[in-house]
Records
---
Amino acid sequence: MGIVNAWNALWEPNPRAIKPRRKREYAGAEVSRLTSGWVTSTNSADSDIKGSLKKLRNRSRQLVRDQDYCKNAVRVIVENVAGTGPRLQAQVRMARGGRLNERLNQQIESAFKRWGYAENCDVAGKLCYSDLIRNAVAAWVESGEVFIRIVRGQKFGDSSVAMGLQLLEADMIDEDYEGKAERKGWHWKMGVLQDEWGKPKKYALLTRHPGDTFFVNQPTDGKKHIFIDAKDIIHLAKFERPGQTRGVPWMASAIQRMHHLEGYEQAEIVRARASSALMAWIQTPEGDLEGDDVVDDERVFDMQPGAIKYLGSGESVHVPDLNAPDGQFEPFLRAMLRALSASLGISYSTLSRDSSQSNYSSSRLDVLQDQESFKALQAQLREIVLFRVYKEWLEIAVLSGALQLPNYQTEPERYQQARFMFKSAGWVDPFKECQSNKLAVESGFKLQSQVLAEQGIDYEEFLVARKNEIDLAKQLGLDFSDKPNTSPETASKVDTTTNPQEDDET
């Protein structure tokens, strides 16, 4: 029986062998020796932001303040997004025919331009409208968000429009405030009162900047907070996760890299200075401490080029090898700047101003990609800030009598139509770009107005200026075509009796 049992056991199915295998998980979720130190969380967007926001803002500002690369990064984004400031183009059309009403549009644009002077639009009277927008974009990048307060009912400067703007740094909205909600379902989160849908209702505005520690005697009304209605606040931020309340500095993911780059640069500078400093040491037989580097019987060494130091008896100098391998710093620098450019969403060549490793094709590709990124940011700026400010200003201008717009109260949408023109993007190769646009217009793939709009030029203004230019050229008998104009008509307009000497004097 023993042999039979052994034979049966040999051919009996192995339960362990036929046990169904565990369903395979994602490799990215696998826990192993290599991923044991990978700490993650299931926090919400605001929970992740809350504990790090102040430190991220302060570190980002320090890098922009002290490091050339980060400072230039902010400058590049401001120049390409805001440029010299957006230019308003009112788009009011005729009630019949749909043509643009040039008279009303000119009236609106002139009034808005006058209001845009620093003493009229800025409550502090420091920034004109274009500079205010540029500063807002800079704070948007550096701090991750910026707030613009609309102050109604008060005239600033000599403007007849009772409205001004106040630019608020992100610190002014107290992210630590947690007060009592006014209604059921509402709640305070990071200084913002939200309804049950997460829509902002009020903002907890500090009466004094939390960093104004050197100006404790600054006058206040005794309150720490004032609560501003959401209709009076424009919040410009990049919300990258659903439910996110506050913005995060754009350089957040590259902050540590740029800090290490700063330290690496300093170390390289010290090494280069030390390795280039030619020094000599003199050892005396008596062993007495002599020389200018002796203070209170203690030797103080200052590594200066050309210095001569005295050593006592038995003393020796050990100088470490300061000759680092050549060509290591520049590749490391490029790698760090590529990380920074990826964090900001712009190309390395645009950020670093380094085109040594680029050709026409790669440069054009970088320019096209950057233009798309900048257009997206301009669209966000246009929708959140520019249209909002323009609509508020237009309504107050009509109510105050600064603008006379027929039937505005019954059809405000007709008057609120507008465009905002930004500066044109540069061309990598003007000749090729011009030829490409010319071919696209002639083939019908592009409108001439579209080509001009890409260059920041108003189409109607261009046509008027072009007509005036052609009329003046004809009046003077000039022809700027490729071939010289030798027609009898043009020749007859030239005064051949004029004294050449008088022409020179003229």
---
Amino acid sequence: MNIKRAKQEIKDSIEAYLLKNEDGGYKIPSIRQRPILLMGPPGIGKTQIMSQIAKECKIGLVAYTITHHTRQSAVGLPFIREKIYGGSRYSATEYTMSEIIASVYEKIETTGIKEGILFIDEINCVSETLAPTMLQFLQCKTFGNQEVPKGWVIVAAGNPPEYNKSVRDFDIVTLDRIRKIDVEENYEVWKEYAYQVEIHPAVMAYLELRRDYFYRIETTVDGKVFATARGWEDLSEFLKACEVLGKQADREVVHQYIQHWKIAKDFANYLELYDKYKRDYGLERIVEGKYTKETIEKVRYAAFDERLSVVSMLIGKLGGMFKDWFTEERFVTLLYEELLRYKECMDLNQVLGEVSEKYAGLRKAEQLNRTEDGIWRKVLCTLEEYLQVQKKEYLSGEEAFARTKEMFGQETELREKRVEDTLGALQSAFDFMEEAFGDSQEMVAFVTELNTNYYSVQCLKDNDGERYNRYNKKLLFGAQQEEILKELDEVEQELNTGIKEMN
């Protein structure tokens, strides 16, 4: 299955495992809460989904790559303790607390969250001395003589043997005590994630043209060569930094991330073309509706790769605007909620203190992603600004609230301006697409990408987009037609098979 489906299955399992009875105990007893084992190729996002699940379920996360550990750190260090059995004194070996178990308790102390995920990566690649410990861990949920705390779900991940020579097979006894989920790479699923984390548009445009280069592992005379989802994401972050610095990544730099020379060289060449397309077509002019007839003619008669690259660049530009809209919308919503509380208590200083405490709690519990963290910090800064204005103008009571309400009105105006600019840019993009390509496969690709991007979906769900809705209906109708024709073909094949068998 793909990583998106695997994520949902793990999330459903965690919710089931943490479901409680009326007496407060877990509905599924700990002994029946099977550890989950994710098996799949490296770099497809197994680790990332753990962090996402923990935030969405509002639980803790402790992650370990077990190959970095020795038996001593996993189980604990041995020490001798004297014990009396049957009136005789004996020396018995015991163990200090496992570093891994200790980390779980530390996480509980630090975050205040008593339930969570203990994630062990590369579990089937451990050393010979540590292998029995891992089997014990999966079968009994213990390291040495310490048990994983109640309320902590075990999820492990490993690589199939074709990707790692040091892989160890699990025996039937172990496999009969776990839930094994096999995952595989899937570009369409990764693309949804890529839009959310703002993967560089050049990477998105390239992979749309070269989908078979998204994930590839090959054995050559020079050893293993590979391109992975992790490599593309890390390269994307570096490319965005290079743009800020005014630098260019060449093929050698690309190869440091995409360790498949043919793909790295091909992408580096495409990156040069991509920069040329950006200069030639001028994305800013397109979304402002200021493009020329010459631009239309140029893209209309361009090669297919170039036309699709322009569409991807346009989606990338709009994607940034949709993300800014989402951030602004979320910020104003949170700020409004806090100002409602200010209206009730008429003490902005009190509200600011409570928001600061709430933000600190969310950070401590590790429940905020980068975007949400930035939004909360902006809310805090804005409330502090409101308070400073009140002090500076010697305002209190109703006057202070009225002044704050006035300043908040400016934020709502900015939000409305953001909505107007974003939808205006979308309309200009549709104008360009219609004039350049009409009702073509490029338009289908454009609308499909809008449906894939999380932020554009949220924006268009909340705001009416007449042309988007029109083209989207066409797209859905086309997809339904294809599905119906496929089903009819299957029925026809079954009938033909049945007729042959009767004859």
---
Amino acid sequence: MLDNMETMIDWSRAQFALTAMYHWLFVPLTLGLAVIMGVMETRYVISGHDFWKRTARFWMKLFGINFAIGVATGLILEFQFGTNWSNYSWFVGDIFGAPLAIEGIVAFFMEATFVAVMFFGWDKVGKKFHLASTWLTGLGATLSAWWILVANSWMQYPVGMVFNPETVRNEMVDFLAVAFSPVAVMKFLHTVLSSWIVGAVFVIGVSGWFLLKRREKEFALASMKIAACTGMVASLLTLYSGDKSAYQVAQYQPMKLAAMEALYEGGTRQPLTVVGEWKIPTMLSFLATRNPDGYVPGIHNILAGGHTTNDGSKALSATEKIARGKMAIAALSDFRQAQKDGDQDKMDASRRTLEENMPYLGYGYIQNPDDLVPNVGLSFWTFRIMVGFGMYFIAFFALVLFLSWKNKLYGQRWLHRIALWSIPFAFVASQAGWVVAEAGRQPWAIQDLLPVNAAISNLSAGAVQTTFFIFLAIFTILFIAEIGIMVKAIQKGPESLNETDKKD
């Protein structure tokens, strides 16, 4: 029975990861292209030069292809909360569902409305109105990302709610705390800015292909300049948001940080591991505590407890947390029984016990302290892949901007090849970031509140396996279709103004 449950959990996690990772192949490119094509159309409206209209329309076409397939995968992702994670949805649906509902009602409909004007409104509405629709489409996509990231951030840092033992649900008491938590703000900035990097690398890579083919020289060089400027600004700001996010991880998810650094035995003046034996002295302590002499707990320290936490209290051991979690579960059961029996005194006593131990409720579902340790190897290496590519892109954008400033960008065929082959690097880095964020907080569906083994639906492992492979086939077909359509659109190149005018 236990083996079947573990199999069910593994397949449910695999299915959700599959859907999320496929969805995230499309979202960052949508967010990145939205900014770049918005800048290009702005230049068209300011200058009146039809060159910029033609340029903006080309990238807008690629945006549209990507946008459509991204929507399809996103819808499936949200439905999975009700199918595979029904206990999760029941337990925190009042909180988690609010930002998703706002995203669907406000942000998604906003971008769905203006995207029609953006694509079909050329020369049918005024230039300024069309420009506004382009930026509002991008704003709608960004607001969609905001509310989705608010929901995800709440899973990493649950705030603004209170547990109701009568309904066995967490209920929202402070919407602003949920919507504007420090984790949500930083996650939004880091995610959106890194998506701009993906869009910038994509534009530079495709433009590099045109230059390799000795086609559309003026179009390609202009696109590369705008994309490189966007990418450089985004890269530098991503450094800032990444530093802030890492500090928050140290404060609220110390086990994730320990896994990211493969830090088993912590201490003061901890070095930051680059790779292997290459370490930067005291850097981890500084990044995690803002003090080079600060104490950073390792995996064994967190499990054993006894060290001083960020709020000045003594850390409980994993065993103590599990014991208190079981006390919370027992108190909840006693409260429910007393409620049925109409025993008010016992209800009050059980409620007090529950409130005292509520911060550890989720630990009561943990079978073994070692289950609290995420996959260290996966967290360690994906974090370095993400950071490594981030450093690479800063150098990449700087090089493109330098050669552009020197008017030597056209003749550097080696750079055009590097640009083209850098496109998959951007997507790998983007995916690695999400692996760090999500795999690093396991076994928690909601940090310290609800583990994945208590969040799943009562389904058979076989049913989830079947749908996993169905989704795998569907998503793979959609992905291949998108690449095929994208390649054809790129090979065709920007349409002439005569062609676009005829369509309009």
---
Amino acid sequence: MSTKTNVRSPFFLDLTAPVQTLGTFTCTTAGLSNFAVASSGFVTNPLLLAGSIVGQTATEFTVNTTGSSIPRSVTYTIAIPLGYTNVNDATIDCVQTFDQPTQAANENPNINNNCPTFAGTIPNTSGLASTAINLATYFTSGSGADISSYVVTASPSGTAISAVLTGTAPSQTLTLSTNTDCQLATFIITARQSSDNCTAISNSFTFASANCEAYDCTDANVTGGNIEQDGTVNKGTWTSGTLNALRYDGTDITTSLNAGANTTGSAVNKTITYRFNIPNGFSNSGTFDCDVVYSQPATQVLPTFDCAEAQITGGFISEQGNIAAPTLGAGTLASWTPQSFAEVSVNTPQTIYLTITPPASGYINSGGADITPPCPYIITQPATIIDCGTTQFGFAGLNSGLDRPEDFCNSGLATSYGVGGLARLSSTVASFEDLKSTVGNTVCYRLSPFRGGNKYYVIGESYGSTAEFISNYSTFYMLKIDDYGTVQEVVQWNCSGGGDGAGARVA
């Protein structure tokens, strides 16, 4: 979302685009709510405003028959979404606490023989397209009242696995099925007897479809990182999985990020273990350890603070040319030039020059003068009057953008990707061929700049009722589009290699 304010000279504005001020992701940001633990021990996972649950310390507790409530706590590991300053931390832990009520007499199957019971173990299933579970095999109604209904709970939610109950309780069948390769979810079934408000809960079990590969360190793809002389561990980056813990010599250093100082007088190798939560879509589950060896120097080597170290992000230029300065990951923004720009009739990349002061410590040039020369930074200024052009093209759908070109090969696209007939966009370029090699042009949807969110979108020349299909085994084109409809990048891609596929930046 952009911020637009009209003012007259000589006033200057300090404008901030709301999407650029996400800040640090915390448990408060995640907004966990509705966590509960039933007397039977069944855990109701919380709802989240942001982020996603990738792990938890408990999925159920024992039944409470003590006669008083018992405090219960579950620690949820939550993946940090993109856009937050601590996204490199991968996850945060948030503790939820609930007083589990004692089980009333009418809920206790040992007292009330109307309550259902569960016996046996529902097995894990893998390598199949579907499996049917006869619930009457595991659940038994009470002597005086039948099971009223079954509730199926899946974790994580949103997989391509369907869970369908057929028949009439208590003799229902649960069918788990999917047409998508390599889907994995964990299920719990709760039998309810509504008259006495009592339940019985199954064991947790998994269903995994076929054609999954095991997650390993190649998938994690840890790159970068180092250990400083004083033992400070600077984490690398990775492409798949979320970080569960960071370990050194059998000790968890996730919080301390320190592997001990090197006082030997020469460089030493130290192994840091990255423990990842295995994401959905692999044959294995739980966590996986990847060892990375770093050479720790004997003397502290300080980097030079430069424009790259400043980690410049965000910023905004209004249609009237007023500038809201970008934010820095390190250092202090002292000033910038120019202070404003004239209005433009087309979306125009503008360069501002930032004068940045290094941090007080941690760098060779700390405590000294500002970085010279000033750091150039490009922000696109939106046009006051948008020219949407007349060249029309097919578009893969208004909500189909992905963060990386590689993701189109990893998102379950088995054979082809349809782009025609779904949405019609226009561009200011002269032809579709020009669209495949031009950046800085504007694309519009219904005569307004398309809000692309800096994601990649598949395009095709057709836009009528007959769909054009982009095969996984042929080359196709994508546009990276910002929130002003401006094309930031053109990418040519091919998924024939499997996995991330292969491709190149065209312009």
